Amino acid sequence: MSNAEDSPDEHAVTPHDGGRATLHQIHETVRQEGDHELQRSSSALAWSGLAAGLAMGFSLIAEGLLHHALPKQSWSGAVSNFGYSLGFVIVILGRQQLFTENTITVVIPFLHNKSWQRFVNLARVWGIVLTTNLIGGLAIALCLAHTSLFDPPVRESFLKIGKQALAPAAGTVLLRGVMAGWLIALLVWLLPAAQSARLWVIMLIAYVVGLAHLAHVIAGSVEVFYVAAAGERGWGEVLLGYVAPALAGNIVGGVVLAALINHGQFHANR
What pLDDT is stored for residue 16 in this prediction? Predict the structure, then answer.
């Protein structure tokens, strides 16, 4: 997401129809936001993407702290996963660039007005944001693994969370990535209508992604990068077993199940 001062509309709509935002208003808000992102300079995208990658580390930190503090009961995982929402809250309310949001935000303008130049620009945004998100996630994972910022028992909780993310086969990670990409893209679609409930919408959807152990390429990469940085798994296993299938799934979920379907709904209503 862009910085608040740079955004033309700050995800705002003026609802009518009994206080409900219309489909046209939601689509236009997302499209205008996407147009704005496509016009941003590469350096602005890179700094915002790096900030988002670093901030997503707070999902692992908050979940790990709760995992360590809670008693080992059957319900403790349901509570500790609330911590997973923290990174998303920081990134989205802070209007930072997160790759999975751009699977719908910059795709809607392309679907609205297809051209080779716009596709190249879309690829530019994706490439810069994904790369800097992953660099930020790697940096925070290395910091957590190789400093005394947190006590060893807390770092052990980080390790358990990361190993849990790596446990499924790559095919399962891909399927879970589709669901995660779909939900996060739908989160972007819901924000223009959420208004004062934006915080709760972000927390609820991010909580479900964490609770279901769905594969989000940035938040999950922080978790698995930590495992590799701690020397518990190889970097090749982390990249091929988690990052690559999560990325593919997030793209399919965000572009096909969210952007294409919602744009198709809008186009049909026109």
Answer: 47
Tell me which residue range forms the domain holding 104.
Answer: 4-269
* CA distances in angstroms from 129 to 183, 194, 211, listed in the order given: 19, 25, 26
Question: How many structural domains is the chain composed of?
Answer: 1
State mean pLDDT over 241-261.
96
- pLDDT tens digits, one per residue of 131-143: 999 999 999 999 9
Q: Where are the alpha helices (DSSP H) in the chain?
A: 23-39, 42-55, 57-69, 76-80, 85-93, 102-105, 107-112, 116-146, 152-166, 170-194, 198-211, 219-229, 235-238, 244-251, 261-269
pLDDT reading at 224 higher than 90 = yes
How big is the chain, counted in residues? 270
Q: How far apart are CA 87 and CA 6, in angstroms?
A: 21
Cβ atoms 213, 164 nearer than 8 A = yes
**CA 155 to mean position of chain CA atoms:** 23
Categorize the per-residue pLDDT at 269 as very low, low, confident or very high, splitting at 50, 70 and 90: confident
72 half-sphere exposure, CB direction, 13 A CA radius: 2
C-alpha to C-alpha distance for 157 and 57, rounded to whole angstroms: 14
CATH at 220: 1.20.1080.10
Print the SS3 string covering 150-196: CCHHHHHHHHHHHHHHHCCCHHHHHHHHHHHHHHHHHHHHHHHHHHH
Q: If you ran DSSP here, which 8-state letter would residue 115 be given?
A: -
